[in-house]
Write a structure and sequence with these properties.
This protein is an alpha/beta fold and about 400 residues long. Helix content is about 50%, strand content about 10%. The protein has helices at about 15-35, 50-55, 60-70, 85-95, 125-135, 150-155, 160-165, 170-175, 205-215, 225-230, 230-235, 250-255, 270-295, 315-325, 340-345, 365-400, and strands at about 45, 75, 80-85, 110-115, 140-145, 185, 195, 240, 260-265, 300-310, 330-335. The chain is globular, with a radius of gyration of 23 Å. The structure holds adenosine-5'-diphosphate and magnesium ion. Adenosine-5'-diphosphate binds near residues 119, 120, 122 and 342.
Length: about 400
């Protein structure tokens, strides 16, 4: 019989510390190499076919309007082909979509929180793709990373461990040192999307919020983010919040601030079971808070989106039925397929939107992109509904006062 060698416990914390420092170094190198030559992310550019599609017009009409000088013509390359930057493209898109844009005088921006108990269900990917898709429909978007792991921050080209200061995050809000997220906002490489970043230092919020709850009279820890968003709701059409994979103090804040919730859910048994626990715990916690505070919370929409759906997987057919029976009308008619494409785009710190439409010719890539486009269309409709409701409420108040 083989003698089992004894395994001496010799990996001390200081060694783990060295491993961690090394790992951070490698991440930063990988990113720099991937983003060469600028070492910064850059947004895609669009040709006339792609721009016409984004504007929802015929290519001939687009070219006519450019010749007439009604639309930006982008820049011409050596062979005379036009190319538009993201910023130029968004200006054109907006001019065709005036009817679909928010009237800032009538309605504040809508807040969408992407949440689920579990990690790896594609919350962050969904948050980023939603932001990009909505910005390509002409909306001005703010993304708020509430996950101390900072994955969304990374997707938007900022490294949480080395490039994020406390004042770039919602931590000052949680600490009571700020009463608005506005000073924490930074621009991103993507025109039309600004960012409130996250980094591991955000873990401190999990101590600060409960301790303020104990020591400050009248403090409601769950309202901190909602209250801090007042100015941002004026300045942005849509605010998208990404959350950590737990029901933390921050997650509760993100849910209370939300007009609508998007819950990505892969159709497998474990993720399904944990999603049920998520809602159960959330309603229990909020029920308790609101009974105490006399508050109430109503969402305009709660969307369960099947994510990472593997069509070849027979088990998921059964689980999909369970999800249907469990969540009924909240399961939206959009499914995000599982694609190696999504995985590889993300490996390059981006989403399908970063690849730019020109590389979205491959069938699998097109399928993933089309699925995200359907999700964006669906959510955009709901956001329009949220704005319309706010406008109704405002005009009712004006009527009453007048
Ligand atoms: N549709 C998809 N198909 C395949 N892989 C995906 C898909 N969406 C996300 N992923 C991958 O799954 C992993 C977890 O995604 P992420 O968005 O970070 O989830 P979460 O924020 O819920 O932890 C990432 O590696 C991401 O690239
Ligand atoms: Mg995440």
């Amino acid at each position: 019989m083989n003698k089992t060698h004894s395994l001496i416990p010799e990996i001390g914390i200081s060694e783990l510390d060295a491993v961690s420092a090394n790992a951070l170094h490698v991440v930063s190198q990988v990113r720099t190499a991937m983003l060469a030559p600028e070492a910064r992310k850059s947004a895609p550019t669009y040709n006339s076919t792609q721009l016409a599609e984004l504007c929802g017009v015929d290519k001939n009409r687009l070219q006519y309007l450019v010749r007439k000088g009604d639309l930006s013509g982008g820049t011409k390359d050596d062979s005379g082909r036009r190319e538009w930057t993201l910023a130029e493209a968004r200006e054109c898109i907006k001019s065709f979509r005036v009817e679909s844009l928010r009237d800032a005088a009538k309605a504040p921006g809508a807040v969408i929180t992407v949440a689920n108990f579990k990690g790896g269900v594609s919350k962050t990917t969904t948050a980023a793709a939603l932001a990009q898709g909505l910005s390509l429909r002409g909306h001005k978007v703010l993304v708020i990373d509430c996950d101390p792991q900072g994955s969304l921050t990374t997707l938007f080209g900022v490294l949480p461990d080395t490039e994020v200061e406390e004042t770039d995050t919602i931590l000052p809000l949680c600490a009571g040192d700020a009463d608005s997220v506005m000073p924490a906002i930074q621009k991103t490489y993507w025109d039309g999307i600004d960012l409130v970043a996250a980094a591991p230092l955000l873990f401190n919020a999990e101590f600060l919020l409960p301790s303020r709850q104990k020591s400050e009279r009248g403090f409601a820890f769950w309202r901190v983010l909602d209250d801090g968003l007042t100015a941002a709701r004026d300045a942005y059409d849509i605010i998208i919040i990404d959350t950590p994979p737990s029901l933390s103090y921050i997650t509760i804040n993100a849910l209370i601030a939300a007009d609508g919730v998007v819950m990505p859910l892969p159709p497998n048994a474990l993720d399904f079971a944990s999603s049920a626990q998520f809602w159960n715990l959330f309603t229990e916690v909020c029920g308790g808070l609101f009974k105490a505070g006399g508050d109430d919370k109503k969402f305009s929409f709660v969307d369960v989106v099947l994510s990472r759906v593997d069509r070849a997987d027979a088990v998921s057919v059964a689980v999909r039925q369970w999800i249907g029976s469990a969540y009924g009308r909240h399961v939206i008619p959009v499914e995000i397929p599982k694609t190696s494409v999504a995985a590889s785009a993300s490996a390059e710190f981006g989403t399908v939107y970063d690849l730019g439409p020109s590389s979205v010719q491959a069938k699998t890539l097109k399928r993933a992109r089309d699925a995200y486009e359907s999700l964006v269309d669906y959510v955009e409709q709901q956001v329009a509904g949220v704005w319309a409701h706010s406008a109704d409420v405002v005009s009712a108040v004006i009527k009453k006062e007048g």
